[in-house]
Design a protein that fits this description.
The complex is a heterodimer of chains A (136) and B (115). With 136 residues, chain A is an all-alpha fold. In chain A, helix 1 packs across helix 3. A two-stranded antiparallel ribbon of chain A has the order 1-2. Chain B contains 4 helices and no strands. Chain B starts with 5 loop residues before the first helix and ends with a helix. Classes of the chains: A mainly alpha (136), B mainly alpha (115). At the A-B interface, helix 1, helix 2, helix 3 and helix 5 of A face helix 1, helix 2, helix 3 and helix 4 of B.
């Protein structure tokens, strides 16, 4: 009706977030670092896949893969991956009490108990894995 | 209203997260670090061949690799979304991450069944 009104047309106010907003505070950096641990989870899965592939290609290929694993650079990368995956485990389990709310009757099981149970499961799973691959 | 696919993707993310949180550190230690460094004797070829060709072994490998990749896909997608403020590329990022996870899972099935 009144084209002049365009000048004062109310636009939605949206603050533009800078791309590196998360570098401003340490908690934000820690959050993004935590999420980035998933990259090393994917990397480990792919390394295991490659290992299975070399097994399929024969004993010589498998041995070549084992030799590659032993090279210092690769050991360094995998050691770093282990630390990062440990960070993934610890931060993931720390969220378990928030996710798993158990009620006995009316009372809620304390967070520390839930967390302890998850750490127990972690220890148990790790022992089983290590036992399985070293028993032969 | 169309049913959102989000719960399925979230379930894969959570399953992969819990599985990897519980077994991945030990798995990396016992398969990728300890044998090459000589801390434990490496598995002989016949042993690993037996493990990988066993039906349960095949299923576990396929399941583990797939879940790990879908865990990464979901988490990486949302980190790019929130972290790098790439909302406008949402469809592209989702296609890339879940697509990559699906493709590598398919490759896993192919490799595992071909051993």
């Amino acid at each position: 009706m009144n084209p002049e009104y365009q000048r004062y047309h109310p636009k939605w106010y949206r603050r533009r977030m800078p791309i590196f907003w998360w570098l401003d505070k340490l908690p934000y950096v820690k959050f993004i670092s935590r999420e980035m641990t998933s990259v090393f989870v994917a990397y480990a899965a792919v390394v295991f896949l490659v290992q299975v592939w070399t097994i399929g290609r024969g004993a010589v290929a498998y041995q070549a893969f084992q030799d590659w694993l032993a090279s210092p650079l690769v050991i360094g990368v995998h050691a770093a991956a282990l630390v990062i995956v440990l960070f993934h485990s610890v931060t993931w389990l720390s969220l378990a009490p928030q996710a798993l709310v158990v009620k006995l009757g009316k009372r809620r099981v304390p967070d520390s108990i839930v967390l302890l149970a998850h750490y127990g499961a972690w220890v148990l799973a790790s022992v089983v894995v290590i036992w399985f691959f070293t028993r032969a | 209203m169309r049913r959102s696919r989000e719960p399925v993707l979230w379930a894969l993310f959570t399953g992969g997260g819990m599985l990897t949180a519980l077994v991945l550190p030990a798995l990396i230690g016992v398969l990728l670090i300890a044998p090459p460094l000589g801390w434990i004797p490496p598995l002989r070829y016949e042993q690993v061949l037996g493990l990988v060709t066993h039906p349960v072994g095949r299923l576990l490998i396929i399941g583990f690799v797939s879940l790990s990749l879908f865990h990464w896909a979901h988490r990486f997608r949302y980190t790019l979304y929130d972290g790098l403020q790439l909302y406008h590329l949402n469809m592209l990022i989702a296609f890339f991450t879940y697509g990559l996870a699906t493709v590598i899972s398919g490759v896993t099935v192919y490799i595992v069944l071909g051993v």
